Amino acid sequence: MLTKRIIPCLDMTGGRVVKGTSFTNLRDAGDPVELAAFYYRESADELVFLDIGATPEGRDTMVEIVERVSEQVFIPLTVGGGLRSSADMRHMLEAGADKIAINTAAVLHPGLVREGAERFGSQCIVVAIDARQTGKGDQPAWEVLTHGGRKPTGIDAVEWAKQAVALGCGELLLTSWDADGHRAGYDLELTRRISEAVTVPVIASGGAGNLEHLYQALMAGKADAVLAASIFHYRTYSIREAKEYLAERGIPIRK
Amino acid sequence: MENKAIVIIDYGAGNLRSVANAIIKLGYQPKVTGRAEEVLEAAAVILPGVGAAGDTMRNLTESGMSRAILQLVAEGRPLFAVCMGMQVLLSGSEEGGWHQCLGIVPGRVKRLPPTLKTPHMGWNQVKQRMAHPIFDGIPDEANFYFVHSYYPEPDDPSVVAGTTDYGVSICSALAKGNLVATQFHPEKSGECGLKMYANFLRMALGER
Fold first, then answer.
1. Is the pLDDT of residue B51 over 80?
2. Is this complex's ipTM strictly greater than 0.90?
3. Could you tell me the domains of chain A?
4. DSSP H or E stretch at residue A169
5. Whose CA is closest to B94, among B109, B75, B81, B74?
6. Does domain B6-205 have CATH number 3.50.50.60?
7. Could you confirm whether A224 is annotated as catalytic?
């Protein structure tokens, strides 16, 4: 049986791992290569690296980091942040990334999703969606944000998710902008709606504060994987503790 | 001097670097090459692969690699094929219409049922169906990392070395003499994956 994945996320800027609340107020959480090796030893199922600065210099630094990480970490690596062309994608894949996450560039140029999927395979292309709730009660709705959450687009998140899959992406990385950094749980409704609307795996992101939140995202949110940053970076919980907790509650987990 | 070269086949696609990193981590110096003659001289060959079946077959054929692979297998020399590398060993693939493949292992490559989330992405268990040196030190039902939308179905059940349950039973590993192939990615499967490559290289090179 396919297991549910636990994915620590390394938000990076200037070659260091940082983590903030709703994408601001960053705190340094350490060296990415060391942290990646640590999570690998702890049996993390995958790692995601996001360059939240999304600058050209950041991209070059990220290439070096991915090269170093892939020499010692033998689990899938997803890299995103500021990648705007298939040449950028190729660069990261050649450095040792397995999957490329695209967010703003995919919204601005949906053809990039198709191009990436055709050149490198759907399994390489992850569309990252930052969503913010705009409608509540009987008519819940979420809109897509771009540019690191700074720019509302008016695009419906569920519709965009379906379109991204139709364009050929192999996975969705879904972040709730309302929940991110608040440690009060994932946006379960958003996660469930998108997970039910698409045929590809969905990674839930944004809001993990305790292990029950991971469980809820997998059960009520119907996510295929859960991503978290601060609860792991600041050692609130270890990956092993998270896995033991979920396994005890009947979730299929790789020990 | 006995030839101990380990070659990773480069045919313009695939996750070569990850595979090379895994082999280096095990203490070997692999050679990544697209030259058929170097492949034919090697003591152990790895055929990696991600991407589409049609492109892969075209690349292999145009580079003359198809013929080298057929010769290697005919001579019973050690070959480890991974993911798309495994799929092209079969007679043909349904992916993107119908693509004739190498025909080394009779059978076909089929699309996962539409009721399942596709790709099959993540860690899943491999049930060992035969005693084989590649499984040395690896527990039965250990988890390996998968990412694929099509799966191989060999005609001959006796080549099936491992199976994996994803709604359908997938032939996730096959072995026939010195030919080994896996649908999962050992280079992305943590310590169990590294162990499997180490087992293959020990089998191929007869050392350690």
1. no
2. yes
3. 5-248 (3.20.20.70)
4. none
5. B109
6. no
7. no
Are residues A45 and B50, on separate chains, in Cβ contact within 8 Å? no
Output phi, psi for B145, to 5 deg.
Answer: -95, 125
| Nearest chain A residue to B144, by CA | A254
Token pair 């999703």 is at which residue?
A113
Distance from CA of B124 to the nearest CA of A (A): 5
Where exactly are the structural domains of chain B?
A: 6-205
Which secondary structure element, helix H or strand E, spans residue A90, and what is its range? Answer: helix A86-95
Could you tell me the two tokens for A125?
Answer: 């292309």
Block residue for tokens 């994803």 = B166
Q: Which two tokens stand for residue A161?
A: 């998710």
Rounded CA separation B7/B32 (Å): 6
DSSP string for A196-213: HH-SS-EEEES---SHHH
> Percent of chain A scored above 90 by pLDDT?
78
Q: Are A99 and A203 in contact (CB under 8 A)?
A: no
Structure confidence by residue, pLDDT tens digits, A58-80: 888 899 999 999 999 999 999 99
Alpha-carbon distance A41 to nearest alpha carbon in chain B (angstroms): 9
Kindly report which listed range (A195-199, A233-237, B44-48, B64-68) carries the lowest average pLDDT score.
A233-237
Q: Give just the sign of the alpha carbon dihedral A190, A193, A197, A203.
A: positive
| A31 included as an active-site residue | no
CA–CA separation, B87 vs B63, rounded Å?
18
- B124 → closest Cβ in A3, A199, A200: A3
The residue with tokens 């992305």 is B188
The separation between CA A115 and the C-alpha centre of its own chain, rounded to angstroms, equals 21
CA B146, CA B186: separation in Å to the nearest integer? 9
Distances in whole angstroms, Cα of residue B9 to Cα of each of B39, B42, B74, B154 = 7, 11, 18, 23
How far, CA to CA in Å, does A124 sit from each of A90, A101, A196, B14, B15?
10, 8, 22, 11, 11
Residue ranges of B 15-34 with Cβ closer than 8 A to chain A:
15, 17-18, 21-22, 24-25
Q: What whole-number percentage of chain B has pLDDT above 90? A: 87
Burial tier of B208 (Cβ tally within 10 Å: 0-12, 13-18, 19+)? exposed
